[in-house]
What does this fold into?
Amino acid sequence: MSWNSYIKSFQNYLKIERGLSKNTIDNYTFDLEKLLLYLETNSINVSPISISDETIQQFIYSISKVVNARSQARIISGLKSFFNYLIFEDYRKDNPLELIESPRLGRKLPDTLSIQDIDNLIKAIDLSKPEGERNKAIIETLYSCGLRVSELINLKISDLFFEEGFIKITGKGNKQRFVPIAPLTQKFINSYKNNIRNHLQINKKFEDTLFLNRRGNQLTRAMIFTIIKELALKINLQKNISPHTLRHSFATHLLENGADLRSIQMMLGHESITTTEIYVHLDRSHLKKTIYAFHPRKV
It folds into this structure.
């Protein structure tokens, strides 16, 4: 079997047995393609079954010169998963990355926006343009529901349960969760649907997709990034923001207003509470209030 055959088999395993998203599978494939490019560039003719620890170590050393520690750690993790899959399928007996450690990563606290920042972003949207109402609904939905950008662009009309006050989100690994949606956000979505979306010539493939471009096709991740970057420039916001910044702000503002971590974890769709705990580091005032309210030595 060729490298491509093993990779294709690995992709099928990730999709069917692990239930991972296309975006995650693409990232695993991208890591493997880096290794293949290294082998080709250096005229190293080995198969996934015969590649040695030394060759992998040389590859890791070469990428450490051109990518940051976080990217290097992700590549190592992706390759380990691939070779663990080969062991699982009895293609090889050992993992050539077994003794390779990922670089230590400092925990980077996520950027957040103030409520005023978010209000200013929304006020900067030009509602005289057809896409204005759509963009307003997008920003409100990202912030009010704490969605990942991939969850937003894949949101379906059939996922909207406004009477019950929830939307159904399909997150990482095709895991579904229900997230509360505020009446105000529902109002903006309905306005976009009635005034803009219903007048588009919609591609049949995307008839159930909520947010569309003017040609009636699904929006891309890149387009959501562009919308937010342009609004940030418009209000001269001195922060490097992305759709994920709105998700971080959603969680941080909930915590500041007294929400418990378990509830935030469920709404964000985090598998582990430890992922959600990063928000505790952001809000030191919340920790101080907790001590003053509950510790016996508070006086």
About this structure: Residues 115-291 form a domain with the hpI Integrase; Chain A fold (CATH 1.10.443.10). The chain is about 55% helix and 5% strand.
